[in-house]
Write a structure and sequence with these properties.
The protein is built from 12 helices and 16 strands. It is α+β, with helices and mostly antiparallel strands. Strands 1, 3, 4, 5, 6, 7, 8, 9, 15 and 16 form a 10-stranded mixed sheet that branches. Strand 3 and strand 4 form a beta hairpin.
């Protein structure tokens, strides 16, 4: 048998192109279903673990999936905003701990998440470097963001404008990085966290500028009286919040009317959660309350329906590929008739030829198995990143 394997190996080496084609085809047929199952299992684990850890989410009535994906995974499709008053109503009810989330803006293709310190305690996030948020205009980076951008405490990060032509005159805000979270292997690793008021400053709802009562340039003053000073549009607005300028930043109007994208509600107990859910079921209610676990479970059901279709498609393609390989192999045997005739001439039997063919198939199957194992290991090791890239983000 050793002799047969050696001759088969030499034949495979001589016919490199044909052997490589067979090897790749067999590897793809076997490894694709394995990789698909690994990715789907990882996606289910990631989606469900984060959803199960988030009891309730409140947002504008509409697509529950968009609301959950934006709140839990900071998807780019932000739902319609709701007023900050919705968060205060939940706090006043004493039924749950409300955590506001405003996930609308980005910084260098990374989501900016405006929230409160309660969010970090709720998610169990711990600092790896620096300190927590203490002042307007500061940000704390997720581990993956800090690694990808090469930033750390003391560096700066500028928010990205929503459009190239910003008619509202909202300037990008230069934020100071004060900390980096330890890797949590969740969507939090991919976000830039700021205080909820800093998110409002990014939107232009809060701003800082020169003290209008001390303006001397007449082109900056629109109207002056004993009680007030009205400035023109030429008044310079600060685009960075420092210890010197933080005192000039202010908000106009009632903060309860300011926008957020959602509220994460953490009920005190099961009964409180049930009562809270009942309050958002009335007809005409503009807000909705959803259970993320139920929403994500429905999404996974759709994914697994698609998987059954993909399995059928892969099965048909695999069958066609196998038939094509058999055809190639049969044609190869016909082409090798003179080679087999020579084997008979030098004393070889039909069993010898059968052993040579079996040895070739064994070597190709062995090589394909090794490649399949390597591909499966690589998929399992990078499943977390692949799922985020293909499914979540």
């Amino acid at each position: 048998m050793i002799d047969s394997l050696y001759i088969a190996w030499r034949y495979i080496c001589y016919n490199r192109f044909k052997s490589a084609t067979l090897l790749i085809c067999v590897t793809l047929i076997v490894s694709l279903p394995i990789a698909l199952n690994v990715l789907l299992y990882e996606s289910e684990t990631q989606l469900m673990s984060r959803a199960a850890g988030t009891p309730l989410v409140i947002g504008q009535r509409g697509s529950a999936l968009d609301l959950v994906m934006n709140t839990l995974y900071f998807d780019n499709e932000a739902p319609e905003p709701i007023p900050m008053a919705a968060c205060e109503e939940i706090r006043d009810s004493d039924l749950a701990l409300p955590i506001p989330v405003y996930a609308r803006f980005q910084a260098r293709d990374n989501p900016i998440v405006g929230t409160t310190l309660d969010y970090f305690e709720f998610r169990g996030l711990t600092l790896g470097q620096g300190r927590m948020l203490t002042m307007l205009g500061e940000c704390v980076l997720g581990a993956s963001v800090a690694e990808r951008l090469g930033l750390g405490p003391g560096d700066s990060l500028v928010s990205s404008p929503e459009s190239l032509f910003d008619l509202a005159g909202i300037y990008p805000l230069k934020m100071r990085v004060v900390g980096v979270f330890q890797k949590s292997h969740t969507a939090d690793d991919l976000a830039v966290f700021v205080d909820i008021k800093t998110a409002w400053v990014i939107q232009g709802l809060g701003h800082g500028h020169q003290d209008v009562t001390r303006l001397q340039d007449p082109s900056l003053v629109l109207k002056r009286s004993d009680s007030s000073v009205a400035a023109t549009a030429k008044l310079y607005h600060y685009t960075e919040i420092t210890e010197e300028t933080v005192g000039s930043f202010h908000f106009h109007g009632d903060l309860a009317d300011y926008p957020i994208t959602a509220v994460i509600a953490v009920p005190c107990d099961a009964k409180s959660g049930t009562i809270l859910r009942g309050r958002y079921t009335e007809a005409g209610e503009k807000l909705q309350i959803v259970v993320p676990e139920e929403v994500i479970d429905g999404l996974l059901q759709q994914i697994f329906r698609i998987k059954s279709v993909l399995d059928a498609v892969i099965g048909v393609v695999a069958t066609a590929t196998v038939l094509a390989l058999i055809l190639v192999f049969v044609l190869s045997l016909r082409i090798r008739q003179r080679e087999f005739y020579t084997t008979f001439k030098i004393g070889g039997s039909r069993l010898t030829i059968a052993r040579l063919i079996a040895a070739e198939m064994l070597l190709i199957a062995t090589g394909s198995s090794i490649l399949c194992v390597m591909a499966s290991i690589a998929t399992a090791l990078h499943a977390d990143y692949l799922v985020r890239m293909l499914f979540i983000r």
